[in-house]
Amino acid sequence: MTKKNKNRSQSLRIPRIILLICGFLAFISTKLVTLFAAKLFTTPIKHKLPKRELEMNSKSIQNLIRIPAIHKSVMVYEYGNSNRKILLVHGWSGRGTQLFKIADALLAKGYSTISFDAPAHGKSPGSTTIMVDFIAAIIEIDQQYGPFEAVIGHSLGGMAVLNALKKGLKVNKAIVIGSGDIVQDILDDFIAKLELKPNIATELKLHFEKKYNEKMDDFSAYKAAAMLSIPVLVLHDTTDDEVPVKAGIHIHKHLKNGQLVLTDGLGHRKILGDTTVINKVISFLKEA
């Protein structure tokens, strides 16, 4: 049994100055702190491209395409030249090359991959985004680059994949890795990290519902999962300290045709490069 890593991810640490600003704004006005929290919630961190992803970056055909539904653009990566295409969807503050080890393994098995930098991520323009944008990008990319045999999503990308399938994306199989699940849980956790009172999470949800004219709870992954009939593989690590393993278990519970694989000691990101995990992804795709 691998021991859980006691060092929490850097992405989970909120700078002290942000916490102080949140506390100050909360003292002044619920509306102000809600707007500030909304800005933080929708602003990803653009990380420098790691060396390990340079090969996929250099060997990909890259095109910036427009997503009319959201009036935003995304950078698309075409990797390989097979007609057997797999769509890859990264998570929050990720990149289109983040699933490079999975992509390399797919290429070796005769597939090609299409991936993209979500709005405000990687090489895509903008500074703010939300899952609604991920979903719109998936649907538009399917229209321009599909059809796809399968789709693979990590973290928020997993939630977006399930919601895109609910909205009509057609593939034979889907794989979600370390996927988030219940929207309210995600908002509650975010507000707790900001050291704000729980009622601000409710205010934040209401803010987004008014802005997008949609119920945020409807984007919960388990609700989308319950509407799917295609085979779906759910992969999650028991020591994931960013998205708790209960999310993957709950998603799987609502699938009609799902498989659940739990790993241990890989956390939220190392799971993407684990050989056993990648082999399971390949074998699942090849199953009749």
TrEMBL record:
Peptidase S33 tripeptidyl aminopeptidase-like C-terminal domain boundaries: 229-287
Domain annotation AB hydrolase-1: ranges: 86-181
InterPro entries in the cross-refs: AB_hydrolase (IPR050471), AB_hydrolase_1 (IPR000073), AB_hydrolase_fold (IPR029058), Pept_S33_TAP-like_C (IPR013595)
Keyword S-adenosyl-L-methionine attributed: no
GO-annotated molecular function: hydrolase activity
Transmembrane parts of this sequence: none
UniProt-listed Gene3D superfamilies: alpha/beta hydrolase (3.40.50.1820)
UniProt keywords, alphabetically: Hydrolase
Superkingdom classification of source: Bacteria
Protein name in the entry: Alpha/beta hydrolase
